[in-house]
Amino acid sequence: MSAPHDRTHARDDATRMHELAPEMMAMVDRVIDYSRRRLIFDDVPLDKPLPLRELRRLAPGSITEEGIGSQRAISMFENVLAPACVSIDHPSYLAFIPSAPSKASIAFDLVVSASSVYGGSWLEGSGAVYAENEVLAMLAREFGLPESAGGVFMQGGTIGNLSALVAARDAHRRALTAAGRPHPARLAVVCSEESHSSVASAADIMDVEIITTPMDETGRLGGEAVAPILEEHGDAVFCVVATAGSTNLGLVDRLDSIAALKDRHDFWFHVDGAYGLAAALLPELRDRFAGLEHADSLIVDPHKWLFAPFDACALIYRDPELARRAHTQRAGYLDTLEGDDWNPSDYGVQLTRRARGLPLWFSLATYGIGAYRDAIRRGVETAHAVADLVHEREELELVCEPELSVVAFRRLGWDLDDYQSWSDRLLDEQLGFVTPSSHRGAPITRFAVVNPRSTPEIITGILDTMR
Ligand SMILES: *Cc1c(COP(=O)(O)O)cnc(C)c1O
C-alpha cells in the first residue's frame, strides 16, 4: 500500500491508469501489436461460439480487485475469447448481412479510439463532424437528395429507423396542428411484410400502430398496395417505410410508385436501405432505386455493404430542420450548444456519440469512391454467378433471381432440421457460416455476399455440401 500523502512516493494510486509508466508502454505495445497482427493477417480463421460453461472454464476470474495485468488479459482475449467470436470479415461468412471492413477503415478505427473525439457537438468535435458530414453529403448526392440534406451517423439501422420515424411523427403532428386538423387517437406507420424487424420494434417503442401491406407478385412493395391504406387511414398514417434491399431476399421495393403517392397524400417517405442502398452507388443498378430522390429520410449501414467496421448507420434527412426539432435535447447545461454549425446529437436518439463515421471517411478519402463501386459490384457479380450455379443443380431451387447480392434458395426435400444440422456442421467444420431462414413459412437458406473476397469458388465448396 502506498501512502496517498507521501510525495516522495513515485506512484499515485489515483492516476496510475493514466500515466506513462514503463508497464503502460508495454501494455500499449501489446495491444497495438495484437491489433496489427489481426488487421494484416490474411488467413483469419472463421471461428465459432463456445457454450457458456466452456467459457467459464477457459476464461475464469478476469475481474478482480487488483487486476490481472494486461499480459494475462490480452492473452485471454487472443487465446480464448477472440476464437469464440465468429470472424465477420471471413470470406465464408455469408449469413445474415456480413461485414467486411476495408483495411483503411479498420486501421482508422484505432485512431478514432486513440483520439477521444466527442462526436455529439460542433463545439467539441467540429473537425470530426465536418469530415463525417462530407461523407453524408456525398451519399446524399449519390442518392439524389438536395444539397440541403443532412444527418448523422447512428449506431445501427435499428436506431436509425427509430430516429427517422420519431422525426416523421413529430413533423406530422406539427403539420396537423398548423393546419388546425384533429390529431388521430392512434398514429400508424405503413410498411411491407418484408420490412426489417426493427421497423416493428420502433413502432412498438413509439406506441404507434404498424400496418403491414402485402407485396406485389414479385415480392416488392408498390404504390398500389399503399394507396388504399392511405385512403382508408387518412391522417392516422404519418410514415410509409419502403425497403431498398430487403434483408432476407435482397429485393428493392418500387420506390418510385410509392413516392408518386405524395402527389395526393401527405406522408413522410422513409427508405430503409441499411443493407441495399450501397448498391445505388452502381450506375448500372441506379434505376432500381428510382424514386429514392423523393425520400424524406433514408438509412444505409456502412457496417454492412460500405466496408466500415461496427457500428455505423448513415441516417440522412431531406430537411434536417424537421429532425432537429424532434430530436434536440433541452437543458440548461446544453443551451451553450445552440446556434452552433451542426450538432450531430440533434438528429437522432442519442447525445454522447463516437465519431463513428470517421473510419468510413478515412477509407473513402484513401481509396476514392471508385474503389467502393468496384467492391460493391463484385458482390453483385458473385451473387449472380452463384445463382447460375444454383440453377444448374437439380437438388437446389432459387427463391427468386438475385436483385442485389442475396441469393436465397431451397434444398429440395429438406425440412428446417435438415437446414439447421447442415448449417451447424458447416460451422463446426469451419467450411462456412450460413444459417437457415424462411420464406412464406417454408425453410430456405441464403448467401448474403458483401465481402468482395467471397468468391464463387468458396461458395461452390459450400454448395457441394448440400448434395
Ligand atoms: C440490418 C438491417 C437493419 C438493422 O440494422 P442494424 O444495424 O442491425 O441495427 C434495418 N433494416 C434493414 C433492411 C437491414 O438489413
What does this 3D model show about the protein?
The chain has helices at residues 22-40, 52-58, 70-81, 103-115, 122-142, 157-178, 197-206, 223-233, 255-259, 302-305, 320-327, 358-367, 369-392, 416-428, 456-464, and strands spanning 150-154, 188-192, 209-213, 237-243, 268-272, 297-300, 313-317, 396-398, 406-411, 436-439, 442-448. By secondary structure, the protein is α/β, with parallel strands linked by helices. Helix 9 (255-259) links the parallel strand 4 (237-243) and strand 5 (268-272). Residues 1-6 have low confidence and may be disordered.
List keywords for this structure.
11 strands; four-stranded antiparallel β-sheet; disordered N terminus; binds pyridoxal-5'-phosphate; 467 residues; 15 helices; alpha/beta; globular; seven-stranded mixed β-sheet
Strand percent estimate: 5-15%
Q: Strand tally, please?
A: 11
Order of strands across the widest beta sheet?
1-7-6-5-4-2-3
Structural class: alpha/beta
- Alpha plus pi helix count: 15
Ligands bound, unique? pyridoxal-5'-phosphate
How would you briefly describe this protein structure?
With 467 residues, the protein is of the alpha/beta class. It has helices at residues 22-40, 52-58, 70-81, 103-115, 122-142, 157-178, 197-206, 223-233, 255-259, 302-305, 320-327, 358-367, 369-392, 416-428, 456-464; strands spanning 150-154, 188-192, 209-213, 237-243, 268-272, 297-300, 313-317, 396-398, 406-411, 436-439, 442-448.
